[in-house]
Amino acid sequence: MPTAAQPAIRTRITSLFGCKYPLILPGMSWISDATLVSAVSNAGGVGILATGPLSPDETRAAIRNIRSKIGNETPFGIGTTLLMPGATENAKVAIEEKVPIINISLGKGDWIAERVHNEYGGKILATVTNAKHAKSAIESGADALMLTGHEAAAHGGDVTSLVLIPSISQRFPDIPLVAAGGFANGQTLAAAITLGADAVAMGSRFAVTQESSLAQSIKEIVSNPDLFGGSTESDTIYGKNFDGIPARVLKSDESARLNRKPASLPLVIYRAFNAAQKMNIPLYKVIPGLITQWDKMYMVAQFGAATESLMKATVDGNFDEGVSSENC
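RE: above sequence
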């Protein structure tokens, strides 16, 4: 693990991860890349690389790129959504590269924790949305939990951060907590710590920074608080029809249309296969799951089918035809 920096504010997370500030960049697909991860970690936070869109070779290259920018003593991490195709391979690459922090979600990561702890003393940050998942993550070897509240952009739980943080902190007092969902400045950091958290993850806030690769037109919409034409606290939609997992996205005609009802099964499978090809995921890794684990893979297929709409907004800046999960 990297040598601990002298923290500006000392919490269990700054001590555990060796960072200066209790600020985390979560892994956001097409946004939390090597450039933004390096910028956040170099500034004293912890940047987490999004590996969802990456092949194992791309993940390895990104990890080495980050290290070339921050050195070997500055903490950073990678995120792996275990339910998704390619996640296991990317996690293995991260372990081979001895990434200091691995953020796992939507899956059982005990095998990752065992290897990370035993092989090089790394840390596991598990993303959870309720007490049941928190208990499972702790039993699987998590060193810290990221609590994703209902306010979060993209995939958040049913429980608000105001309720979730104190509930988990009281139920599991010995594990460090990162609060995610509604946190974007010093006021909200102070609120999170008061509620029982040890750090905050700020996705939308870091997504609109100069170093972020989010399309400039989307940055301007997200960061504009104007009541007429901007992005306010009311300009989001929460539901599971868009990509199969409950998620919060920016309100637009397109996101409203896609959230009205789930896509038809043939369309979901067709678009999921197209997304797999664009992300260089072999179809042989997708088809068996559709047959043997239909419920889980249908959700994965829905998520894959949403990729095109997410990329239109996030990468291309086409807000009218795409969907943005970076909120105000």
